[in-house]
């Protein structure tokens, strides 16, 4: 659990023309249960919607998911837009089937980190992994 | 017999409607030229003289005397938020729904020149929003500090991030502003909450704006100016749609109100997608939504209407030469009460009204966006889907006095060549024949069921 003193706000959504709503709901549930404040902007979300939502809610991190293989195109430029909107140092996480076909994960991860994402997750990642990373990245120490 | 006197102080005319509440019967209507500059009561007195004959030569005792007003520019507001599509839009919706005329809409951190602009426009009320509850505080605090420097915008309603509200209030109070704090117009990203701000605007209107517009003098005779006229019309639309505890309403509906200066569209409808496979995006829309098109009017805004629609299109609808259409439009601009005299002038007025309805509805209705995905074509809906709304009501001088109001109202309908604009497809056309919607909105404040029956009785099929 996140400690009481500060609740982190996460903007969560499925980017581009992707309509995978079920996974999105599962993520919302998992992150909310873990004690985060989740702002879910739903499926088919544009980069601008992620940014606008983060600006209004003063979010700590943007969590992008993409399952239909076009994540690479959809995510390109998100960091730059965040910089333009004055929230350049926001944490950006991305996960899912991010590229077309079966590609080497290490290369994919490298590509997304180079695009300005702080973390990228391969298909099949459990929510807990991202939860642990969030807590670590924001300096919350997990007890036991 | 229970009688009600319903008064609408307009910029040009003061219109009065005398109603027999028990029989739900309009006994008399009249109007007198409004004189805001000298004495607001003059127009009212003239109108009252006119209705005396209906009561045997003396004015009866009216149990309720209620008024709305759009005199002296109505309620003039500025709306400020953070992100244009989010809190700025929410603030705009709140102001429009309260019956205000919007002078300017501002996003992000205000600049000195924007502050000058705001000051220059002399707003009655500034609505300050920005940030969801617990969200961004920086911008609303910055904007409060900037607003502290204004000379004129004295009444400020704060409807932004609750975590910043106290501090924002302090800054503005120290600057000598009159400040009200109300609930956030956008407490969460997907939760529009415009009602508390609307109520706060209306309360402020009653307390201060009425005074500023010289309407206080009228209050000795009437029981008070309750709301801006557009708010009364929206009130009536809502009542007619949803009904009261005792009587059912008509269901979802749209009101088209064409005036000399603006064309207003009110929709009382959920607007959820009616087709399968459509995903809704963006800010949720209010159930009672009002849009105002300041560039589409029959007289004061006739020239801007010509500019927005184009003289070629206007001419082609009338079948008259462009030059003739243009010169008529120039002629009627600023001749506020001019009525068409001959066939050609009727043609042009009809075309102006029809195209104003067309464009205003296009801007009010939601749209579908076609997106190609790996799974095929998908649709995203922005705004309200009004395709299945069963009633479309026309009001405003040009519609009410027109021999064939359908010609105008049909401009609002769904168009085959514009399939992505979600306009009504097969609504029943109703006409506010006695021009009483504003009066109904007022009466609804004291006798909702009687007001509803009155509205039903006088909305005739067009």
TrEMBL record, chain A:
Keywords for the protein's UniProt record, in alphabetical order: Cobalamin, Cobalt, Isomerase, Metal-binding
InterPro entries: Cobalamin-bd, Cobalamin-bd_sf, GlmS
Gene Ontology annotations of biological process type: anaerobic L-glutamate catabolic process; L-glutamate catabolic process via L-citramalate
Pathways involved: Amino-acid degradation; L-glutamate degradation via mesaconate pathway; acetate and pyruvate from L-glutamate: step 1/4
Record-given protein name: Glutamate mutase sigma subunit
NCBIfam families, A to Z: MthylAspMutase, PRK02261.1
Pfam families associated with the record: B12-binding
Origin organism lineage: Bacteria, Bacillati, Bacillota, Clostridia, Eubacteriales
Domain of life: Bacteria
Organism: Desulforamulus reducens (strain ATCC BAA-1160 / DSM 100696 / MI-1) (Desulfotomaculum reducens)
UniProtKB/TrEMBL annotation, chain B:
InterPro entries: ATPase_NBD (IPR043129), MutL (IPR006230)
NCBIfam families: accessory_GlmL (NF040745), glmL_fam (TIGR01319)
Full protein name: Glutamate mutase, MutL
Domain of life of the source: Bacteria
SUPFAM superfamilies reported in the protein's UniProt record: Actin-like ATPase domain
